[in-house]
């Protein structure tokens, strides 16, 4: 019987390469003190599709989460130090990273969708983006992506028209805020999450630009829709 039973972190970087962690309430001071900066964060809005570690499935998240954004094609954690093959903020890493044990996942799985930090938890009440964030959620809510994914070829013409209008409204809102407040792309992804057209592209919906704005091209049964 082998005696090489792992019971401590080897700091091999494997977990970091699999993506950045979601932030929890215990991590608020890390953001407020700029140990973790807003430009390194991305918001996954309620209803977006993401991998659920508990179920092993891609499904709609039940509550907004803010996580450390990724880099590269494999979307590795933005704080992963490529040169030293380790965490760039190890001494100030988030709770999820502290409890993560690749040899025993019980504790990290217990954190999934629990005590999550949201944008409104992180931002001060007098931040001028806060009312815009709230307005964006009101007029550009994340649609039922699970429902859309499950019946792409059978969506009604009215639903397709509604989605196209929502995509346009989302882009116009973002463009206005970016122009007026000088936001960088990384900041936009924290404040508003990914643009809706990108979320739809993940479902196999093709996008093109027209003089009237973004056009959506929906899969059919013939070209791969279900």
What does the model show?
With 226 residues, the chain is an alpha+beta fold. The protein has two domains: 14-120, no CATH class; 124-217, no CATH class. It is built from ten helices and ten strands. The protein has helices at 14-17, 28-32, 95-99, 106-110, 119-122, 130-139, 145-150, 157-181, 185-192, 196-201, and strands at residues 41-44, 49-52, 57-60, 65-68, 70-71, 76-77, 80-81, 86-87, 206-210, 213-217. The mean pLDDT is 90.
Alpha-carbon Rg, integer: 19 Å
For the secondary structure, the number of strands is: 10
Overall pLDDT: 90
The span between the termini is 49 Å
Number of helices: 10
Bulk shape = globular
Element order: H for helix, E for strand? HHEEEEEEEEHHHHHHHHEE
Low-confidence stretches: none
Helix content range: 25-40%
- When the domains are counted, the total is 2
Strand content: 15-25%
Q: What kind of sheet is the major sheet?
A: 2 strands, antiparallel
Q: Give me the side-by-side strand order of the main sheet.
A: 1-4
What structural class is derived from the secondary structure elements?
alpha+beta
The oligomeric state is single chain
